[in-house]
């Protein structure tokens, strides 16, 4: 159960409206790695959690914080849209600023949401749960969370570079700092689990059931061997259970497949079709 | 540029058809963390790569291998669908096996693809590029890749538990082993970059520009303090640049927002609407 | 900013697991009119609100309650999935209960979410922000909200009819009661605004700018005049500004359109294509 | 069965081309509340109708009219696109009008549709049946229809404000007038059903089966009590079956949930993971 | 502008309900190549038509017929759903017929649409305009139309094989016959245009502007030369403008690409990252 | 199994960056008829192929070539994005070139992909497998392939017209030439199969089972008889099995449908609702 308090977690006030930047900012609100994604991802992981209490609580705390970030961004976007113009080509042609706005803003910010934030990204794609996941395996999920915070902070930094507005920069500087914490936090949680389970997810599958003779092979599947120069191509494997092995060229263990003809009730093209 | 050879990377032959399992197996072909996802994710990261050659080559090698996995799964699914029945309730009611098949298979495997694999997941959702990304920042992207291999191996293991078919188990045992390698591999690549850059993505954003007074705070936003028990709540931060700090209850740094009224040409509800 | 408390708004305990019903219940969690939809719809309307405080507060209160409903449903679904089997055709064929489960459950509940709730509907479609909206016009939006509560309660009632589990029925009886309140509530809020603005959204557009000679015409566009029997076909219009007028057959006010040929650089088929 | 006549329901001729406005106009053709949505929503409700003939006929009449609106908008958009330029940065940089067009138009109007209308909204999202519904319950569905006409008229009015073209304004003035009628019409149909059934959907579910002690409670779930000032917080409920009751703070009726561990074959993280 | 008459184009009465088949039949109503797709594809092509009148009329006639097919299928599906049960595992386990139904039906047919047709395919995916197109080039579009009729008839035939119900078979026999006509019809229209324009779309692009030295080469990009045996590998090209040429192995005309480093404000991984 | 070689199939070097054109070019990379679509469509058709070897090999060869085209376009787009600016309204307003770029580029090219290609179209929609298909019937599928090459070449030609950059024009001239070949090739493959099977897909369904009395009727469903002037309205049918027959007006073979009331547990609106 949730409670809402009216204060924002941090100020969300631009110096002046900018509907182009409002559109760009949608990316970290409703994009693939935006705040809706992390909020719902962490909350679903928390709600579905069948393991130790501290992890559930961790997920609920951070998921709840991300809801506050959705709120801050929605507020900032609405303010950046203050007085956004409605216009057509005739008006655009007379004024380069209007032309720039018409080009760079999302027309739905006027027509659909009435100068409000949209649950969408900077290209106008509506948010979808395709972006998130909760698998029941914490190591797999915390890696997804670390990914989201990494991509999210990267995008926030690029947006910081894109604006000259001190109010926007200040809010982004707060969100960037929180992403610093959240990357550190998931990194810490991952380290804790890896220390207990080793690194390969899931750790509970018996190693002898997998085809272990290919478990540490790197397959060179392209001309050139630049890929041989990395840590992944030699030395002890990261799980300390094997030795990396660079295999060039990569073998084919299987045969060329030959599928059976389809039964007649399928009305596929039959193989009796003439060969030359 | 690519070349194709007819051999499969590994055998993909079930002992007998099973259209229910064919549908389940679609998850790791065309699902969020399936082989289409990793193939296209690694290839796009490779094609967009503006950095050191060995990383581009690594991405192209592994992306190219994943195409072979798509091929193996498509082949296996087609074989599991051999002779899948077309039937209605009347036929289903006479035969519990037919009833089970009708319930558990995806009808599109007959009606749409003619006993062939679909570019879709086990719930019938078509594959979408919503699942993938390439950001230009390798640490962010390699974390996405490690996530995909972790989720993907978890799903392959669950499918291994779900089947009794030795041919299917054998192919899964190969894919599971390759995911062991790929988790080790991305882990190694990540370690290499973290050693150079520290752990927070992007490492090139000046720390003094972020609001550093919140960069290591954990905010307790729920009743109870179970989340205090983790590594993330105390001690040196993982980036060695700060100290984790558990803050309970979490503060609000911002004010309650009050948006300006919309301009009349928006025809929003005006604030003059009567208060009680 | 939000806070989370660990108690559920209402109990969410089934008498026993039922993975088929777990899938059905997903509809009111992650479907078009499910709890994610209403939670995010109300919150976005609240965050974007540029009008009187009591409406913003109303939206935030109810949006926050809907988050608690998402939580209850996620919890219930996870419990209904306890011990859900992983199985293939061979196992299904030996046991009619297993066959029924395999057919009626969503395989992603095992393979993807590890016996956790999904952000998806009962047909496995992931939730999308296509379902929601916030227009800045409260009368338009409150009508959307009343619609969502009407469709949502209808679905909850159908699910109540579908289950024999007393624990599930009890939770649904709570949600159904809350939907009773929420329909009453939006109805009350709508009545308040309609009393001030009249019923046509938006009320601020000058009537003389619309083509008023068609503002109260009902057009019969099909054979037969059954549609003449309703309140909409005669008498004073609901906005008291006109008189309903049944027009049969309906007129065409425009001409047959004839588009100009495309410019050559478009490479469309040119109109010089031979007439017979 | 349908017949087509070549005349448009109303003229659709702009004074001159304007590819930017063509893109904006897509919103009410192929957007969430555009004409494709209402056409298919009403037709599906009509085709699925299992109730009194006059409602089926009403739905078919209006659904058929909406097809004519799709046609008018498609025609208008095609004309607004006449001679839309194909251009790159070099050309854009020489001419501010070209720059404005390049920015504000949808490139697919040239590359994909060859200066024709798209089944998409003003942000380029293709139309999807996610937008529509037909539940079999007329009161629920007519509320959805009233919502669509309210949102649709609001968007048409905003577009009217956005253009200076008299031909476009004239067509919008027609569509706005029809939306006036359609709001009145659904309002009338709703009133008719509410008079028979009372207001809560579905009316056929026995009240004694819902948890009636919460059927009229308003839960304050945020700091502050602004939400207490509305009609929804006191007085007789709109269905005349109860009394609104403002509850502050809102209670939790349930316990903190504790899910059972997942079975081993799921390979979720087990709860034995170390607490601190 | 359209008119609706109440008669169906053809009868749509099953002998008895069958909710499993109702779900399968959704494929040709709301699937990729279903009747909604062809109806809207032909209508959009007609509305956007900038060429000779007979083609516009052809498109409008056939698009209008397809609306009648949507109607017939919606009616048939609703009838197949008559009395479809709402049930959970407990009921399913007692009755194999109920178990089969629960497995094979789409739960949304009960919960969402109240025993009505859905604008969705047989896997429950909602219809999307991703499936259709109108390019302004009739030869390109008529090929899309012939494709849709070919895929559509194939699916209808598979469904014919899947059912034992004489009423359903009769309606499918009608639709299959219409698809026979529609394939013949598009074939005829294509022949007419190809006779005027030759076969390569678009025919208006000057041949000398393309890199003609590769315009008739077949590239062998796989081991083995089975692909050499077809008509496409030798002899005069189908446009009579060249000679097919089998090239094995295929050449690479380009160099290995090397992208420039990203500018610092992008915060991509810089190429200075250490090579081994 | 696939191998990658580092050389591009053809050069992909623009003369200078142009982020607006980069966005336009996305259409033929990640759009409905772009290179991802043809690559995966041909590969899935190949993998699922249950017929003669030469067709499988044909599909694999061409699918593999299309992967090289994805690669070329990704490379070209990345280069067109070199140094693309990050900017807000303030910067845009000072410089018309910046304004044009901000308007015409996809902001995700900076914020999300860090100056790399996206798996998306020119309107920013992510690629989806909704675009492709593999039915098991080669004639149906080769028609889909011919369609894709026709639409694809049309789009490439329009893009050729849109750019003044000689490097981009050169690459497009190569792709256009390959599309010339691919149209010829699918045309040849289609001719081969039609010669064996006749033209109606599927050819294996017994003609006597369809309702043959409507198999060659053209239904005039609109006012006017322009559609009578085409080859499709008279003369021998294209399959030589009948005679085209123009029927005007078109008949209705079915009755007006009347659906049964829904069972009470559905809570649909009952038909007892009052008629006037």
UniProtKB/TrEMBL annotation, chains A, B, C, D, E, F:
Binds 1 Ca(2+) ion per subunit. Binds 2 manganese ions per subunit. It comes from Salipaludibacillus agaradhaerens. Belongs to the manganese catalase family. Its cofactor is Ca(2+); Mn(2+). Mn(2+) 2 binds at residue 66. Gene3D superfamilies: 1.20.1260.10, manganese catalase, domain 2, chain A. InterPro entries: Ferritin-like, Ferritin-like_SF, Mn_catalase, Mn_catalase_C, Mn_catalase_dom. Keywords: Calcium, Manganese, Metal-binding. Ca(2+) binds at residues 57, 61, 220, 222, 224. The keyword Manganese applies. This is Manganese catalase family protein. Mn(2+) 1 binds at residues 35, 69, 149, 182. Residues 255-276 are annotated as: Disordered. The keyword Phosphoprotein does not apply. GO terms for molecular function: metal ion binding. CDD domains: Mn_catalase.
């Amino acid at each position: 159960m949730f409670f809402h308090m009216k204060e924002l977690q941090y100020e969300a006030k631009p110096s002046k409206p900018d509907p182009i930047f409002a559109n760009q900012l949608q990316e970290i609100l409703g994009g693939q790695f935006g705040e809706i994604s992390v909020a719902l991802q962490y909350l679903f992981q928390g709600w579905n959690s069948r393991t130790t209490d501290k992890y559930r609580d961790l997920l609920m705390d951070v998921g709840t914080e991300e809801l506050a970030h959705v709120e801050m961004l929605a507020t900032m976007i609405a303010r950046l849209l203050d007085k956004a113009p409605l216009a057509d080509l005739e008006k655009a042609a007379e004024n380069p600023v209007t032309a720039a706005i018409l080009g760079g803003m999302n027309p739905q910010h006027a027509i659909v949401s009435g100068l409000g934030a949209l649950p969408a990204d900077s290209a106008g794609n509506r948010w979808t749960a395709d972006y998130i996941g909760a698998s029941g395996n914490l190591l797999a999920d915390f890696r997804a969370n670390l990914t989201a915070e990494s991509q999210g902070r990267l995008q926030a930094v690029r947006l910081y570079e894109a604006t000259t507005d001190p109010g926007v920069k200040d809010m982004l500087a707060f969100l960037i700092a929180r992403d610093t914490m959240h990357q550190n936090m998931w990194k810490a949680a991952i380290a804790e689990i890896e220390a207990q389970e080793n690194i390969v997810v899931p750790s509970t599958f018996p190693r002898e059931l997998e085809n272990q003779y290919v478990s540490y092979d790197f397959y060179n599947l392209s001309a050139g061997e630049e890929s041989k120069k990395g840590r992944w191509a030699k030395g002890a494997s990261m799980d300390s259970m094997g030795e990396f092995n660079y295999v060039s060229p990569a073998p084919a263990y299987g045969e060329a497949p030959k599928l059976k003809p389809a039964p007649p009730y399928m009305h596929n093209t039959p193989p009796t079709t003439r060969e030359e």
